[in-house]
Amino acid sequence: MRQCLALLVCLAALGARSAAGQIPIPAEPANWTATDSIKFEEFQGQHALWINRGIALANGIKMKNGTFEFDMWAGKTGGNDGLVFHVRDRNASEVIFTRPPLSGTPEAVQYAPAINGVGAAWQIYHGDGANAVATVPSDRWVHLAVVVHGDSATFTIDHAKEPTLVVPHLALGADAGELFGLWASAFRQAAYFANMTYTPDDKTYAAPVLTLPAGTITDWEISQVFDAPTQLPGKLPVLAGLTWQKVKAEYPGLVLLNRYRQPPAVSAPADHPDSILGGRVTGSKVIYARTTINATGAGMRRMQFGFSDGVVIYCNGVPLFAGMHPSGFRDLGYFEPIGDAVYLPLKAGKNEIVMVVTEFFGGWAFSGRLEQ
Q1: 36 and 161 share a domain?
Q2: pTM of model > 0.90
Q3: What is the CATH number of the domain that holds 313?
Q4: pLDDT digits (tens, 9 = 90+) for 273-313
């Protein structure tokens, strides 16, 4: 009987809007489903929900556009916690999270999509439109709110008058769903959440027209995934024996491999640089990507490129460049679409370019752009 009464109270709360149009989602088991551990208890004066990693989705509620807000207490163990929206399932969601240990720095707030898993591709999405400077206390309740308008979103901390972060383009696009909820890092940096509410918005928002940079190589084929230690750096396998899938570069000019392949989640061993450079780290993965460049005559052509976390570049079977940039090896391992370049010794006619891309964690991607 008590359980029935509790459920009725929860349902009544879900259906009751405040004067501002907010609909509460109480921190009760009937309202939330998590991909990992979850508990409900009193914490710092609030009836709260706790998750240790992964996502906790609001049950039976959909919101394509609107506002989702709540209070969060990260505590001393918290580090990467926030929210998800446009969730299709556990393998496709948009994520905005905070990093209290990096409060006051450009890394304090992070947007990134999570595709083929709950881990966000934060190395790929950074800078303007993905990161923001903010004060994120870990020893008190902090109010977080996201407002979603079609293909864009704004994120605000502690009822600030101006958005803390503006995301002008959300990555999921056609893969976007309508579920939403809470998010915690895969590294068990747990947090408490309380006072969850949502305000739906039934308006339709047009998606912006996005243009890729001139010279972007748009048409690629990618192979199946291989364990990195099974592949030989500097030597291509028989490419005809691989299974190929055609893919297109997406805004702002990259191929996001998370969209097509299950990414690994393994840290690069900082005390074994030779293993990293030699591609011998257990758990890391490799794919082969190829494209064809048609040249009217023989000559050198410069190609700017980006990669995460490692790459070997071949032109007509000859290796021209090898680099490794996983998180913690040299720095955080951010994907940079410009800054690295290689001169391609093209022959007249068709030229095959192959990029062998290694991933550890944090986002799997590559790009190529021919200078005009």
Answers
A1: yes
A2: no
A3: 2.60.120
A4: 656 566 778 899 999 999 999 999 999 999 999 999 899 99
